[in-house]
Amino acid sequence: MTCTNFANTVIIKHSIMLNKKVAGLWIDGRKAIVVSNHNAETISDFEVKGNLKVEVQVGNSNEHTANNVEKTNRVKFYKEIEKEITNSTELYITGPGTAQEELRNYLLETPQYKNLKITLGTDSQLNDAEVLNEVKSHYGV
Q1: CATH number of 52's domain
Q2: Is the CB of residue 24 less than 8 Å from the CB of residue 88?
Q3: Average pLDDT, whole number, for the chain?
Q4: In angstroms, rounded to a whole number, what is the distance separating the alpha carbons of residues 97 and 78?
Q5: 51-103 per-position pLDDT tens digit
Q6: Domain span at residue 28?
Q7: Is the dihedral of CA 65, 66, 71, 72 positive or negative?
Q8: Known InterPro entries for this protein (predicted)?
Q9: Residue 118 covered by a domain
Q10: Largest CA distance in the chain
């Protein structure tokens, strides 16, 4: 299909995206801000779905036990993120360091998300409004 002018291109892109449930999130080692359009009537109606934090336990003198607790808490954290992105066809993950890569790898090893289209970005500390704008910008809204 060829479009004859720019306006048609925008309309076609918008109508294709209208039926997609997409999500994006900013993540670091301690928290995640999740944004999606899952309850929206149009692609441009994104909202912050959750501000999730990693459970941190302190005071364990046994290094092996402390590592196991940290891994368990990270999996709990990822499962909370999963609840917010369920039914997404695309996911944009951004944040500092390697947290976004770790989440991507975890999701791709999960049968439900093995075919999820995941795009990674890099951003420093962002607040809710900045994450919302970053995700909208990523999806061209």
Answers
A1: 3.30.420.60
A2: no
A3: 83
A4: 17
A5: 888 877 666 667 777 788 888 899 999 999 999 999 999 999 999 989 999 99
A6: 21-138
A7: positive
A8: eFR1_2_sf
A9: yes
A10: 68
